[in-house]
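As described in the Methods, two query proteins were run sequentially through the folding procedure within a single session, without resetting any intermediate state between them. The first query and its resulting C-alpha cells are shown here.
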Amino acid sequence: MRARSATAIVGAITAIGVLLAASGCGSNAESDGNTAKPADIRLYGTDGNMANSFGEALKDSPGVLAGMKGTTPLTPLSEDFKRRVKALDPTLTDFNYAGESYDAVVIAALAAEAGKSTEGGSIAKQIIGVTTGDNVCDSVAACLNAARSGKSFKYRGISLRGSGFTSVGEPSSAMYGVLNFGTTNTIDDAKTEFVGAGDEKTEDKTPPPAAGNAGKTPKPPLKYGLLLPKTGALGFMGAPMFAASKLAIKEINEAGGVLGQPVQVEEGDDGTNPDVAKATAAQFISKGVAVIIGAGASGVTKAVIPQVAQAGRVIISPSATSDELTKFDDKGFFFRTSPPDVLQAKAVADIIMRDGHTKVAIIARDDTYGNGLAQGVRADLTAAGIKPDNILIKMYEAKDKYEKDDGPRLFNKIGTDIKAFGATGILVVGFDESALAIKALVTQGVKQGPKS
C-alpha cells in the first residue's frame, strides 16, 4: 500500500475550504474593506470533545460551553438509522462515529463473503474492492447478495457515501459536521452544518484478487472483536460506536450471515490506553477473532496495529483520525472508515479564520492525535495569513487520569499562559480532560464573549 499523493491532499483541502466558505458557519466576523473587526474570545473543539456526552463533564459549570464550536467527522443520519441504533442502546445522547462503526463491520463482512474466506489475510485483500466496484448497493442484504453472486459492487452505507477507499484503505471523501454548543452545554442541533471533504479521484479502482474456491467444507464463522473505549479518557464517546457495531452484526445475520453462517462477536474495552488495548487484542486473537473493530483513539490504534498485523488479523478503526496512520507500516491489515485529520485541521482553521481571529492559542494532548491536529491547524492558520508569533501551542501530557491536585495545577498554568498571550480564538484538542482545560481558562478569567 502506498501513501495518498500530495496532489490528492491539496485537492481535498481545497474542496473543504470552498465548502466551508460557502456554508456560513455562524461567523461573528465583520469586515470594513479588508480589515476585520476584533473578535470576541471563543472556544473551539474537535472530534474528541464535540459531543453531548462531553458536556456532562461540565455539569457543575452551567453554560460554560455556550458558543463553543468545532468539527467532527459526521454524516447526516436518517431518523430510521438513529432509531435502529437506539433500539440497542436507548441511553444514547450522541451518534458520533456511529455511521463509521456500522460501515466498518459491514465492509469486513462483505470482504469475507467476496473472498469466500473468513481468514484475515483474504479479508484484507478484498476490503478496498468492496467499496470501489462497478455497481452501487446500499443495504447489507443487497451487498451480501452481490458478493455471493460474484458480481462487482461497491458498498455505499451510512458514512461511506460519495466514494470508496483510497489505496491505503481510508475514505477518499467524507463529511464533517460543524457543531455548536448551546446554553445548556449540549449540542444545538439546529445550528449543525455539514460540509464535504476529500477527493473522490483518489478512490482506488484496482480490482481485488479473484476469490478462492469456497468448496463444500464449511469455513469457520466470521468472528469480530469490538476494541472500543468503555473506560479511559475517551470512554464517554464509546457508546454509539458499540451500539452501531452491534446493529451491523445483527443486520448481517438477519441477511443470512457470511458464507452461510451467523457472524459472531466478542466485546472488549480499549481503555483509551495502549496497554489495556493490547491485552484485549491478545484475548481476541486467542479466541479466533478475524476482524477487530477499533481502536478508538489514534495513539491506541497505532500501538495495537503491529500486534494485530503480526497475527494476520484485520483491524478497522471507525474513529482513529491521525494523519500518521496513513503512512504507518501496517502490513496491509489496517483500514479505517474515519477520514484523516489533514481534512479536519483545515476545517477547524477555516472556522477560526472566518470568525476574525488574528491571535490563536491551541491546547492539545501530547500524543499522536493531539500533536497531529495541533501542528496541522497551525500550518493552515499560518498559510491563511496569521503570523507565526500570533499562534501559541500548549501541549500537555496525555494521561488516563489526572489526579485531584495535579490536573488543576497543570491546566491552570496553561490558562495563565494563554491569558498573558491574549488569544481570542482558543482551540482545545483533547478528550474528557478538555473539561479541566476549559475550567482552568475560566479560573484565569479567560471567558467566551458574546455569542453570534
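Immediately afterward, the second query was submitted; its sequence and C-alpha cells are:
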Amino acid sequence: MKRIFITGFALMGLFQLRAQINSTDSTNYKSKKLKVEEVNLVSSYYNQNGDNSAVTGGIGSEHLSDIANTIDVKLIKYGETGIKHTFDVEAGIDYYTSASSDQIDLSVNSSASSSDIRFYPSLSYSRENEEKGTTFGAGVSSSSEFDYQSFGGNIGFSQKTKNKNGEFTAKFQTFIDQLKLIEPIELRPPGHEGYDSANRNTFAGTLSYSQVINQRLQIMLVGDVIGQSGYLSLPFHRVYFADGSVHQEKMPDTRLKIPLGIRASYFFGDNIIIRAYYRYYSDDWSLKAHTADIEIPVKLSPAFSLSPFYRYYTQTGTKYFKPYGEHTAADEFYTSNYDLSKFESSFFGMGMKLTPFNGVFGLKHFNTLEIRYGHYTRTTNLVSDIISLNIKYK
C-alpha cells in the first residue's frame, strides 16, 4: 500500500503548485478558471474478530482485516453569470483478508478467497446558483472486486429558503450490480467449472430538510425509501438444517427498506458542539432497528480539538434467520448470517483534529490532520477496531 500513499502526496504537491498559480490576493475574487478547492487523503485500518461466520453456517472465525486508502479532489469554477460549478473526483482502493471467505473451499488450508482487492472510483458534478439558492447535481460511481461489480448513478436538487436558513433536498440513486455465484465447494455440480452470474438492482430516493433554528441550534430531517430486487442472497453462505444437511443461503428476491432520521447540532459558545443523531429503520423482511449517535467536538485551543463519540444500535432481526442447525425443510427462506439476527451493538472512540495556523508540519496548504479511533462490540461476540487518518489540503 506504500505506492498509494506516495501517489497521493505527489498529487497533492501538484495541486498545491496549481493553486499557487491560480491564487489571488482578493478574498472576494471568484475564479473563472477551474481550480482545486480541497483535497482529502484518507487511510484506515480495520480489524475484526468473531465466531459466527455465515460462510460456515453461523459458526467459525469471522476474522477480517482491511486496509483502505482514498483520495478525494474537489475543484470549482464560476461561470460568466456567477454560477458555481463543483467537480468532485474520488478514487479508493481496499485490500482485505478474510478467514471466513477462506472457508468457501473446506478442502484446502488457504484459497484464493482468503483475500481480495476492491477499487471504487466516483465522479460528481453540481451547479449552484448562490443568489437563488438552488443546486442541481449528478454523479456516477463504480466498485470492482473479484466476485462483485457495481455501477451507480445519482441525481439531486436542493433549494434554500429565502432567508437561506433552511434547505430542502431531493436525491435519487441507483446501483446496478452483478455477482459471481461462488458456491460452497461441496454444493457445486460435478464437473462444473467457472461461475454463473446474477444481477442485483438497488433504487433509493431521499428527501431531507435542514433548518437553522437559532444561532446555537441546527436540525435536519431525512427520510429514505430503498427498493432492491434480484439476487439478494450471498451465494457462498452455508445453512445447516436440523437434519444435518447443508444448503446454500436462500433469501427473497425483493426488499423494501424505509429509514427515517433526525440530526441536530447545538453550539455551546465557540469551543463545544453537541452533535446528535437518531434513526429508525424498518423493512419488509421484518427487521426493525434503532440507532442513537452522539459526538461532542471540544476545541482545546485554536489549533487542536478532541471529539469523543458513541453510537448505540439495536435490531430485532429478520424472520428468515435461525442459528446453526435450527432451520428445517419447512422454511421457504433461510439464513444463518448473524448480521440479520437480533443483536445490540456499541461503537465508541475519539477523534483528534489538528489545524495549525502555519499548516501541518509547516506545510501551509495542508491545513488539517485528523486521526480517529473507534472500538465496536456486538452481543453476538463480534468485536472490531478501526483507526483512520485524514490529511486535508486546501
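The radius of gyration is 24 Å. We note this only descriptively and draw no conclusion about the first query from it.
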